[in-house]
Design goal:
This is Luciferin 4-monooxygenase. The chain is an alpha+beta fold. It contains 2 helices and 7 strands.
């Protein structure tokens, strides 16, 4: 999902601070389009936030030809060992197939200025 230069294209608007940390400050769009369906990132975020090992989450789409692949950026709760597989399985159990996290799960330490923290 990274381009040749190592960038992850999510369609979000972000800034970088003097320490090189990225802060997602807004969504370029609030809908992920996959397979002709429109997916609400907030709906997937709500499912993931119900997990005890998750402190914060941002779901966005990674653009690929003809689609956006849903991806979750997750901050683990303190001392949590929640895994990518557990998060993916929770979404698969709770949502219809086209809302699966086809772009994967990435664990991060900061999600700035997000509604679902």
């Amino acid at each position: 999902m990274l381009d040749a230069d190592g960038w992850l294209h999510t369609g979000d608007i972000a800034r970088v601070d003097e320490d090189g940390l990225f802060y997602i400050v807004d969504r370029k769009k609030d809908i992920i389009k996959y397979g002709g369906y429109q997916i609400s990132p907030t709906e997937i975020e709500t499912v993931i936030l119900k997990m005890s090992g998750v402190a914060a989450v941002c779901v966005t789409g990674i653009p690929v030809p003809g689609n956006d692949l849903p991806v979750a950026l997750v901050i683990r709760a303190p001392e949590s060992g929640v895994t990518e597989d557990e998060i993916v399985q929770q979404v698969e159990r709770s949502m219809v197939d086209f809302k699966r996290l086809r772009g994967g799960v990435f664990f991060v330490t900061v999600i700035a200025n997000r509604q679902h923290q």
